[in-house]
């Protein structure tokens, strides 16, 4: 497996792979890879010939108050994980390659990115769309795999791909969970043992809503109320939002529509921000 650091080298490689008729699959990540990331890599490997995993902690998607500086960085271990999962290339550029001095161009999706995460993290998706568009232009993927764990990110990227005519097939991988239900996340390592136990309320709330839907409940207000109730029983949790929305537009839904509606949750667990969702 090859590690690529420069934009020009990655672009040249992508051109060479395309010239050989290879299908390029991209898995964008910020590193600190866990089993959830690895399922994305495996999914890409099923569908593409050349698998590129990008590892870049993207500064523009963090607000100044957020955890950019303390975000875990462990490139060597990540490279080994990528190789074991079937990646062919790791693209791990230094910051200056992506944002050289004087950099000034950004991409904003102005609708899907607005609610939910967009309210409490107003510049987050601008950073995400900008870096993903750059990764598409650098790695020239035919397909790119993203996780349902970040439901709004998926919706925003799909919209950007449509609006900007990227010829990239966006593939969404299901959320991988720990055995007890907690969605895997690079940020879980910030949690203390007590916080981790309380964090289980998030998946419990989602699973309860799923059970309610299975039992015939469709009304968003009732599903949201029950999920909020479960979360609010935990001392350390502060709810940022609980919402039933359309998985494509992120607009509020009044009723759960099978396969279309997503119940999405963001909380503060003390000072750790956690998100999770379930397609109902
Ligand atoms: P990140 O490194 O957090 O930016 O995540 C990189 C990709 O992995 C994103 O597309 C995430 O949605 C996806 N991802 C993160 N956690 C999970 C998980 N538990 N299951 C599946 N995909 C995930």
Description of the molecule:
With 280 residues, this protein is an alpha/beta fold. The protein has two domains: 2-173, HUPs (Rossmann fold), CATH 3.40.50.620; 186-279, Pantoate--beta-alanine Ligase, Chain: A,domain 2 (2-Layer Sandwich), CATH 3.30.1300.10. It is 39% helix and 20% strand. The protein is built from nine helices and nine strands. The protein has helices at residues 7-19, 35-47, 75-85, 95-98, 117-120, 124-139, 151-163, 193-214, 220-232; strands spanning 2-4, 24-29, 50-55, 89-91, 143-147, 169-173, 237-246, 261-269, 272-279. The strands form two sheets. Strands 1-4-3-2-5-6 form a six-stranded parallel β-sheet, with helices on both faces. Strands 7-8-9 form a three-stranded antiparallel β-sheet, covered by helices on one side. A hairpin with a 2-residue loop joins β8 and β9 (272-279). α6 (124-139) packs across α7 and α8 runs antiparallel to α9 (220-232). It is globular and about 55 Å long. The mean pLDDT is 98. The structure holds adenosine monophosphate. Adenosine monophosphate (AMP) is lined by residues 29-30, 36-37, 39-40, 146-147, 149-150, 173, 175-176, 183-186.
Count the domains. Answer: 2
SSE succession: EHEHEHEHHHEHEHHEEE
Bound molecules: adenosine monophosphate
Q: Which percent range describes the beta-strand content?
A: 15-25%
What is the CATH class of the largest domain? Answer: Alpha Beta
The percentage helix is: 25-40%
Shape: globular
Mean pLDDT: 98
* CATH level-four homologous superfamily name of the largest domain: HUPs
Strand order of the largest sheet: 1-4-3-2-5-6
If you consult CATH, what is the topology of the largest domain? Rossmann fold
Any idea what the CATH architecture of the largest domain is? Answer: 3-Layer(aba) Sandwich
User: In angstroms, what is the radius of gyration?
Assistant: 19 Å
